[in-house]
User: What shape does this take?
Amino acid sequence: MNKRKIYIIFTMSLFSLISSFYIIFDLEKLEKSREKNRGRYLIESQILILENILNSYLYKTDILDMFVITNKGKVDGFDYIGEKLFENDGVIRAIQIAPDGIIKKSYPLKIDSQGKISLFKNPDRKEEAYYAKDSKELYLSGPYKLFQGGIGLIGRKPIFLDNENKNFWGFSIIVLNYENLLKKLQISKLNEEGYFYKILKYNPLKKKYEIFAKNSKEELKEPLNVEFYFKGQKWKFFLEPKLGWNKENHLNERLGIGIFISILVGLITYSFLYINEQRKNMKEISMRDYLTGLYNRRKFEKEIREKILEDNLFTIINCDLNDFKIINDTYGHKIGDIFLMKISKRLKDKLGNKGELFRIGGDEFTIIFRDNFEKKENKIFWVELKKYVEKELIIENININPSFSFGYGVYPIHGRTIEELEVHADKEMYKNKMKYKETKNP
Assistant: This one.
């Protein structure tokens, strides 16, 4: 065999070997990327479940807040409200109110005169109480050992009797059973399906992250890390397969993930229906849209009335999603709901402190813009906002191109009542929608 043949054989063998290594490496990399995409979906789904289920309990403090404000600080009838809000599912330990930071009323646990606790004086709770009061927002603390025994979480919402949040009245409080809450969240399913997880919640008082839930004593080697905010507090969700991102038995793994995803979808659907039912029952005292978490029309009308009384210039902007019915009919209401949530988040994120976003109903949103929309810089900002909101969305491997039409009415230029402003805004929006249809179907 001459040298030329040896060279060719060696070269082809080496090329084949290198090519094989490259293909194997590329396949491994692709498989790892696919596994991580699945992991991100699992994290986002579990975060959504966590937020929805916690909200279904914590919003009861809003109801207690409104109960106290409506009764001008009097707490007569608390036992009736407490009984209505209490759910006998093992998660709620107690519903309480604490005028001036002193826990005086509790359901179902009764408090005698000697059992009253002053949150501002108790060494284990005073820092949390002051933090909640100063932040003027609900503060969720725990998990930690409760005075009543067991491990729990406590949500404390400061109550102010005036709109300026200056006249502090006390707290509305809900105490949750930690172990039963975890069962409700179904986090253990991640362990059963072959994942290590760790959920951290930031403690602003200690200025560090603390463990909310985990299933591994060892440090995770290469976890996915998703940071999110809930009730103004930072959380981190870590996830990693027990066998690593490149698993040997891909068939069994994918079957397991498919089963787990179907369970998650059922839980998400259940969570939405559950929260929707709760909000319908309490809609006369609720100002939030159950799906997006945005303020609803009742809150919108209240804000508009107040702004008209102030007689300061502002703009209402009505937004209507184009072809939303087609999305619902084509992909189903589940995709439609996720689409609405993502669009509302984009609108809210881009809007920032320039205005307040409301979901009026269905695919309709309204913005109270804190300036004259017709200013040049505001028109430029709106072009940027519309471009950002209309970026392509990918939901469960479905590509959707969002689009919306809008119209506006400036107070007091286009009207001095809600009706006049909305009529002007709707006319402008109708013109834009016609232009969209003409562009789409020339």
About this structure: The longest helix spans residues 3-70. Confidence is low (pLDDT under 50) at residues 249-263. The radius of gyration is 27 Å. The CA atoms of residues 182 and 188 lie 8 Å apart.
